[in-house]
Amino acid sequence: MRLFFLGLLFTFFSIFTAVSQTSPLQESIKRGSEIYTDFCMQCHLSTGLGQEDIYPPLAKSDYLMTNREASIRGIKFGQQGEMVVNGKTYNNIMSPLGLTDDEVADVMNYITNSWGNTNDKMVTIEEVSKIKK
Amino acid sequence: MKQYLVLLSVILYSYVSYAQPYATKILAEDPVNLNYTAELVIPDLNVPWGMAFLPDGSMLITERTGELYHFKNGMKTSVEGVPDVYVRGQGGLMDIELHPDYPNNGWIYFSYSSPEGEGEGGNTAIMRAKLSDNMLVDKQLLYKAVPNTKKGQHWGSRIEFDNDGYLYFSIGERGEGSYNAQDITRDGGKIYRLKDDGSIPKDNPFITVTNAKKAIFSYGHRNPQGLVKNPETGEIWEHEHGPMGGDEINIIHKGKNYGWQVISYGLNYDGTKFTDITKKEGMEQPVFYWVPSIAPCGMIFVTSDKYPDWKGNLLVCSLKFKYLERLVIEDNKVVKREKLFGDLQGGKFRNVRQGPDGYIYFAVEGKGIYKIIPKNN
């Protein structure tokens, strides 16, 4: 019985530490949400839905979730021309944002883990730094 | 039944997301009869922000990323000596304007995101310089907003002179509307007024207020990217970006408070309200507001004889909808809106100017500078 309580206590303790300790990914997502507010939200909105026919959605976006490298490149250097997102063609210009590599990684981690998007493989500074124009 | 539920949820959803209680009543129409065409006269530009016409008919053009071009005889030449520009978010090298007496004194004024001073990041700066052998010389920093911040938004930028030769410029609240825009001891969210040499006019409204930024002329602005003298009245007209909805046109009066972010016709980007009020005593009402937003950037009053049916109208660039909006004004009220040249397949419409040749020019991102030409020319 005593062993049982001890076990229970241990279990609670483990859960508690797991919850209170935030992972590097969670930290990055948190920083990324601030970058998102300052640099992305005016067009893509806080819902990640974008604006019909003008700014493509990020929420449940097939482009974002299957074109990891191109998405990073777009955020890092800007993006121009036609792109197909969830079957719809967009033709607009996102001019260079002037973000540093760590900020690009953070905002990628945020947008690929928000509004129903999930991404287990964390985007790192190293990965961003290797992506060229 | 299922269809009803779907319909209901769509209605509810659109209401929650995009409910705009103060939708603009006058809608932008397509022109019934457009007597003009737009011709691309300066191609290959990315984000052309500012345009200034030199007396010899050539043009100075700024690119947001920090290049200054001199366009002359069909050739685009890079001008050297541009100061260090902090290209971040919506910022960079922005507006450019000539002194009203440029032929005699040669002064060129421009605004840019500057990393100068203490702290990481940057803030908006106003500089004047002269052009000599394709080089900016005699550079004088006239104003630099503080503190520096790494935020990417709301730099303002537009520069204008009034009939008395005073220099006006706009600086946005740098993403800190809650404490910059209403505080006259802080930079940002303001229209400023200086003498042409950067000194502060003695009759500026807050000259005697302790700790106030003495250059401030009006406050309570969000991000003004349009500033133009009304050629008939001499007053300075301004437009600014609201949040989601609530872009405004204002007439700038000395010492007045334009209300951001206490009053607004716009919503947060998630569709929630950040204020319940649109009016308050002691705060100015706009001449006009856009709901939904068009994201205005750059405006002029048409005075040229080349566009007889547009005379006295405002032309405003829309970043969002990528068109030029024509607004017919009667007694300081907008009575008609029209959308022009929305079919150019370019990016944001960034700026519009009327040249000394009487033609109107506008800048489109990813394309270049267009000239508006009468069809029966």
TrEMBL record, chain A:
Pfam families: Cytochrom_C. Coiled coil: none annotated. PROSITE patterns: CYTC. The keyword Metal-binding applies. SUPFAM superfamilies: Cytochrome c (SSF46626). The keyword Lipid biosynthesis does not apply. Keywords: Heme, Iron, Metal-binding, Signal. Residues 1-20 form the signal peptide. GO terms for molecular function: electron transfer activity; heme binding; metal ion binding. Residues 27-115 form the Cytochrome c domain. This is Cytochrome c domain-containing protein.
UniProtKB/TrEMBL annotation, chain B:
It holds the Pfam family GSDH. Signal peptide: none annotated. It comes from the Bacteria. Residues 45-366 form the Glucose/Sorbosone dehydrogenase domain. This is Glucose/Sorbosone dehydrogenase domain-containing protein. It comes from Yeosuana aromativorans.
